[in-house]
Amino acid sequence: MIPPALRVHESDSVAVALRPLHLGESAAGVLLSADVPQGHKIALHPIAAGDMVIKYGQPIGRATRAIAAGEHVHSHNLKTALAGELAYAPGEGLTAQAQAATDARWMGYRRADGRAATRNEVWILPTVGCVGLTAEAAAAAARERNAGAIDGVHAFSHPHGCSQLGDDLAGTRALLAGLAANPNAAGVLLLGLGCESNQLDALVETVPPAARAKLRILSSQSAGDERAAAAAMIDELVEAARPAVRQPMTLADLAVGVKCGGSDGFSGLTANPLLGRFSETLSASGGRAILTEIPEIFGAEKALLDRATSAEIFAQAAALVNRFKRYYLDQGLPVSENPSPGNLAGGITTLEEKSLGAVQKGGRAPLVDVVDYGGQATRPGLTLLEAPGNDAVSSSALAAAGATMLLFTTGRGTPLGFPVPTLKIASNQTLAQAKPHWIDFDASLALRDGTQEADTAFLDLILHVASGERCAAERSGQRAIAIWKRGVTL
C-alpha cells in the first residue's frame, strides 16, 4: 500500500503528500495542521525562520517564517536562496553508477556513417518562415503519394531565418544543420526562399560533412514551380530511403535525449529517477544520454559537475552553467525566475527544488562531454547540451544533437511531440489515467510495484518504440520544432 506521504531522504525536513491530505490527518509521523494538496510538502519538524528547508537531502530554499511540524510548506513560507554566478571547485569526483549494462536488443536502421536510426523518414527543413507553409503542404502531399514506402515524410516549419544577425542567425543555422544530420532523417530537403539571411549555401556548409550526401537543396525564388520541384526531390529521397531495413541493434547504438516539462511534486520521486536509472543503464551499455535545460539545474549543478570524467569537462560544464546565469543577469532577471505557474500548482516551490528533481534524469551516469547549442553528442555516456528549459526549444535541440528518441517526463501533461519519437512519462497516476492519448508510461508504477518492475516495463517500452512502435505523440501527429531566438530582429 502506498503511504500518505513520502520522506525522500533521511535528512529531509519535509515529506511529499502522495495523495490529497487533510487537516488533522496523520502522515509521515506528524499531525497535519492544514490541508495539503497532492505533490506538496509537509514539515516533519519545526523549522525556524531563515533556516534551510531540506528535500532530496539538499537545501531547496529558506523558510520565510517559523514553520510548525505538520504545516503545509510552499510559496507562502519558503523562498529560493539562489543568487548569481558561483565559483565551482571539483569535489570528490565520479560516483559509481548503480545500474549495470544490458544486452537488450532493438531493431533499427544502420546509416552509412555507422549511426543507428529509430525511424526511416524524409524531412523537409525550411530555411525561413516564409516557406514554412510550402514545406508543410509538400510533406502532406508526399505522405499521400508515398504512403507505406517509408516511416514518414515530415516538414518542420518555424518563424526564423530572416532579419537575424550574428550569433542569433548562427544559432538558427546550427539547429537546422543538426536536425539535417539526425540519423532518423534518411533524406532531407532544405527548402529556401532565396532572399533570407539564412542562405542555403551557408546552411549546407554548417551541416556535418558525413550528412551532406542525403541533402537536396531548393531555392523557391529560383525555381519555376517550386511545388513541382519540391515534389520531385522528395520522391527521389523517398526512393533512396525505401530499401532500408531494420536490423538488430544494442543499447550502444541508441542516442536518447532526456527532458522534463510541466513538472510536479512527483516528478523528482517517480518519473525523473526512472529516467535516471535508464540513463545509467544506457551509459553502462555504451549508449548516449543527452541532458539539457541548463536553467533547470541551477541549485543542483554540484552533483552533476562532480560526475565529470575530466578536469576539462568539469570546467566546460561549470562555465556553461555560469554563462547561462549571466544570460539571465544581463537581462536584469534573477537566476531563480522559475518555477512556472504549473510547477507551483503541482507542489514545486523553488528552482532549487525543481532542479534537484530535474537532474535526476541523468542518474549517476558519467558526464563525458559538454556541447554548445546546435552541437552533436558523440561520446558514450552523459552529454550536457546548451539550451534553455522551454519544452519545444530544448527538445528540438536534443534532436539536433543526434537524439533518435526523447524521453519526456511530465506531471501536468502536454500533447506536443518533436522530430524524433517522444515518449511521454507521467509522474503520477492521475495524469496517466486522464490523458492516455498523451501519455506512454505511468512512472508511479514504481510506488505501487517497486522500481525493478517499473524499470523492466519501461525498458521494454523503449525497445519497442525504438523498433518502430509509434508513441502517443506520433499517433496524434504531434511533431514540431522551436528555435532559440536570442538576438535583435531587424
TrEMBL record:
Q: Does the keyword Glycoprotein apply?
A: no
Per its UniProt entry, what is the enzyme's top EC class, as one word? lyase
Sequence ranges assigned to domain SAF in this UniProt record: 12-79
Source domain of life is Bacteria
Please provide the Gene Ontology terms (biological process) for this protein.
D-galacturonate catabolic process
Gene Ontology molecular function: altronate dehydratase activity
- Reported EC number(s) for this entry are 4.2.1.7
- Tell me if Lyase is a UniProt keyword of this record: yes
- Entries under InterPro entries matching the protein: GD_AH_C, GD_AH_second, SAF, SAF_UxaA/GarD, UxaA_altronate/galactarate_dh
Q: What keyword terms does UniProt attach to this protein? A: Lyase
Q: Say which family it is in.
A: Belongs to the UxaA family.
**Which PANTHER family does this UniProt record tie to the protein?**
ALTRONATE DEHYDRATASE, ALTRONATE/GALACTARATE DEHYDRATASE
Protein name in UniProt: Altronate dehydratase
What is the protein's species of origin?
Sphingobium chlorophenolicum L-1
